[in-house]
Fold this sequence. Notes:
Elements (H helix, E strand, L loop, with lengths): L13 E5 L4 H12 L3 E5 L3 H10 L4 E2 L7 H13 L5 E4 L14 H28 L4 E6 L14 H19 L4 E8 L20 H13 L4 E4 L1 H12 L2 H13 L1
Parallel strand pairs: 1-2, 1-4, 2-3, 4-5, 5-6, 6-7
Amino acid sequence: MALNPPIADWRGQTVWLVGASTGIGRATASALHAVGARVVVSARNGDALDDFVAQHPGAMALPLDVSDAQAVKHAAARIFEHGTLYCMVYCAGHYRDMSATTFDLADMLRHVQINYVGALHVLDAVLPHFLARKTPGHISMVSSVAGYRGLPKSLAYGPTKAALTNLAETLYLDLHGLGIGVSVINPGFVDTPLTAQNQFKMPALISPAQAAQDILAGWARGEFEIHFPKRFTWWMKLLQLLPYRMSFAATRRLTQG
Length: 257
């Protein structure tokens, strides 16, 4: 049973992807453009956005820093000037591996600002627009399976993704009855500039293009949680079900070899 209204026809629908200069965000924007969506892309890297627009005629670029609440509101207002926003996808993310023995408060707070507070800034800008209209819409958050359970070297990244997933769950409960769809996207390892930092073999690594197709397929099925690749993410879900004694032991075995 679908938890959201399935989205199979994107033709003419305006989609704002925040954090779309590289990786999953850019690939998803490209996939949406290919199926007829009116794509608006945002990120700090204006040159990358201009390059995207050059390759995707009709797309719109709105450079911004998600940590700047006023800039986010200004960008949203520009979108509303052109009509109704159908879907907002929050893809912005920051990642550096960190453990308790290398605790870096400044970078911890940077993770919080980009991965979580930035999402709140965007919600603050778009929720009134969604709530005021009578037509359906959709809000989607790109989180991570790193938010399922605590993981080694994920001291900064994992908690922000856990918070984002919880945020999406609560948004769903609040907005579903109003006809507004909410989904959370929990990827495993995707070959992006962020994961390129990892110094370990990443199991079930997939391309951003494959991730984008999985995301569109999840929206088409009306899923709340879109997770992939399943051959990896189901194992991560199993860790959620285990008692802490067992999950801690399994995590140590899996990550220490």
